[in-house]
């Protein structure tokens, strides 16, 4: 089972994920995710570093092939820059017996959905989901995707924006985006979205700085249509309209 | 409250969404979503057609401004082609008092995440989320986004692929994509993903036909890297690798 825990707190867990966790004999994953579901001294935990996805998936599959019920844990959704792809990859490369295993992938609320919900609906129209990590792809490809999506008027959710090992990527991405998007385009830094220490900051692209993000931050780049609704005594609502310019459904002659 | 119910069945509901539903005085939404949480004869239901988002949001906000606790329901996640954006839009356009309301947006498992989980991890790397409906945007813009994302090597989740009122859009989208993507590119038709009658069909782009989709179908277009792992007596696993070609983390000299 490859299980999405949702972002940060138990309240994001689905019934399906809770049931799956209850049936597991083993809990594999990156330490902080495993900590969310079993006690530190639980003998069923098998934690590993967050750069060891391939080895972690192989070990879990070997155990599953011996008949054990193994839970592979992901924060957010396992299908978005997480363990589901790594498990599929190892099944393809591994012994034929692994193809006979029952693989249940249990979706979860992804970080980008929690981040968007925390500030309004910035992903309310067409958008892209991109990882800024160049560990597994060349930086040139990341820039190409950023520019293709920005150029096509799409909002973007950026995963893995920055880390100690990758300090410059977000800054360069913001520079490239400033070359093609209006300086007034909204940028949301959603830190720890869905957790008690959640912190949402919205600035214009012109003023956005890479230092506003850390490893726990999801960055959302609005489209040029994304809007900010100021509210007294509350954070602003940030949303991307459901319609393209000139296609407002409530303006009778707007469809053209 | 704008609440994501997840796709189809109660097992996708999060604890947070269940708690929010329990506190609501009124349930607004498209009929099939309201049916999932309150009985047909419940006086707290206010159902409306799925083309009336603006009016539905206004009515709910008026009631909320009178002090009622109103639940606006969305299938999947409310922030992805659903009610969160419509509610923000009406708050921006409505009376100043609406800006003082407490708006809780409760994220949910979106249809694309459930569809991806049902077949493997086709959205396991950079991807785009696009609506094929040209009700609120010009078709030319949709084609531009499809080609920009396909050209940049991204997978795509296509919402609203087809309906009685929009019968030709998916067919034309597939034609355009055939002009830029390999005929072997994988296309997934995920019908009723996450429901008891779920039906997942994977074909090559060459063989994909618009008639394979209906209103309840989410279509995923793989990238050219998306792979199919055949399994005995089980549906194949479809996944998009975590790495770009030549950047396989398990091939020591692959990073270049």
Please explain how this structure is put together:
Chains A, B: InterPro entries: 4pyrrol_Mease, 4pyrrol_Methylase_sf, 4pyrrole_Mease_sub1, 4pyrrole_Mease_sub2, Cbl_synth_CobJ/CibH_dom, Precorrin_MeTrfase. Chains A, B: It holds the Pfam family TP_methylase. Chains A, B: It comes from Kushneria avicenniae. The structure is a homodimer of 256-residue chains. By secondary structure, chain A is α/β, with parallel strands linked by helices. Chain A has two domains: 105 residues, Cobalt-precorrin-4 Transmethylase, domain 1; 129 residues, Tetrapyrrole methylase, C-terminal domain (Methyltransferase, Cobalt-precorrin-4 Transmethylase, Domain 2, 2-Layer Sandwich), CATH 3.30.950. The first copy, chain A, has seven helices and 13 strands. In chain A, the strands form three sheets. In chain A, strands 3-2-4-1-5 form a five-stranded parallel β-sheet, sandwiched between helices. A five-stranded mixed β-sheet of chain A has the order 7-8-11-9-10, with helices on both faces. In chain A, a hairpin with a 2-residue loop joins strand 12 and strand 13. In chain A, helix 3 packs across helix 4. The mean pLDDT of chain A is 95. Strand 7 of chain A pairs antiparallel with strand 7 of chain B, so a sheet runs across the interface.
